[in-house]
Amino acid sequence: MNERNYSLGQVGDHEIKQLKVFKMVVDCGGFSAAETMLNIGRSTISSHITNLEARLNLVLCKRGRGGFSLTEEGRVIYQMTENLLESLDSFRTTVNNLNSSLTGKLRIASSDNISLDPRCYFPRLIQDFSSTAPDVFINTNVSSMAKIERMVLNDEADIGFIPYHRKLEGLEYFHLYNDQCYLYCRQDHPLTTMNEADQDIHINTFPATHAGLKPHESISTKIANMNLKAVSYFYDSRLALILSGQFIGFLPEQYAQSYVDQEQIVSIKPQNNHYTLGIAVIYKKTNQPNKARELFLDILSRIFKETRSAPY
């Protein structure tokens, strides 16, 4: 299996079947465990793997007394197999949706200005969805996280884009990205004239604004001792309170950056006063078919190919 200038050529159903067997063997940790899942004998599995290795001109795995293990080439082929099979499933779903003449509505609820965040790819999501399903009527609105959760659970919305502090039973979560949130005050706030030691002493005496939700534990510890005197869920209203000079408050770094650049607000001891906020798409756990929602989630999965780790 060391011929130079080897070319694989066309890949057909036979190779895909062999790749599926290979993937199952890897997922099961060996030939014996894969027998039950594949419902074929060990000798047949071994034949599939041997033929696949010959077809690819690669040694994919080691098997013997030492147990089953992948070679370096085998790890690469396993990852590529996962990507290939995922793409085939996505292609099949899209074709099926196209042939089902998708109509009806897709109801999307978004919290704050998430839909305009470039990390969300919302315009591209809508572009791809509407190009594929032009007869589906799209209804979008903006609301608070808690209301969007209720809307999705009560079948009043199909998809929600939210910053999430918690995970609720009955909802599925697709993590999009993380926001780093910092504590801000107006440029001429008294805190800006203090050294860091004095800031630590006085920071919790100044009125603060917050989202008004029961936060996740990692966030709760940041605001527990603050002098909470105002509730402003939406970033725009929270920023307005901070710009009044009467309140301090947390904002996502990306949202606040232009106001920092304009020297209207400043962060207060960012090395200490920060937390991570996850942004996710939510949808209801249900067996009830919803082809418009399924297509939207399929497009979402394709755009967000890489796994993104949630903060909690």
UniProtKB/TrEMBL annotation:
<keyword id="KW-0805">Transcription regulation</keyword>
<keyword id="KW-0804">Transcription</keyword>
<dbReference type="InterPro" id="IPR000847">
    <property type="entry name" value="LysR_HTH_N"/>
</dbReference>
<keyword id="KW-0238">DNA-binding</keyword>
<comment type="similarity">
    <text>Belongs to the LysR transcriptional regulatory family.</text>
</comment>
<dbReference type="Pfam" id="PF03466">
    <property type="entry name" value="LysR_substrate"/>
</dbReference>
<dbReference type="Pfam" id="PF00126">
    <property type="entry name" value="HTH_1"/>
</dbReference>
<feature type="domain" description="HTH lysR-type">
    <location>
        <begin position="14"/>
        <end position="71"/>
    </location>
</feature>
<dbReference type="InterPro" id="IPR036390">
    <property type="entry name" value="WH_DNA-bd_sf"/>
</dbReference>
<protein>
    <submittedName>
        <fullName>LysR family transcriptional regulator</fullName>
    </submittedName>
</protein>
<dbReference type="InterPro" id="IPR005119">
    <property type="entry name" value="LysR_subst-bd"/>
</dbReference>
<dbReference type="InterPro" id="IPR036388">
    <property type="entry name" value="WH-like_DNA-bd_sf"/>
</dbReference>
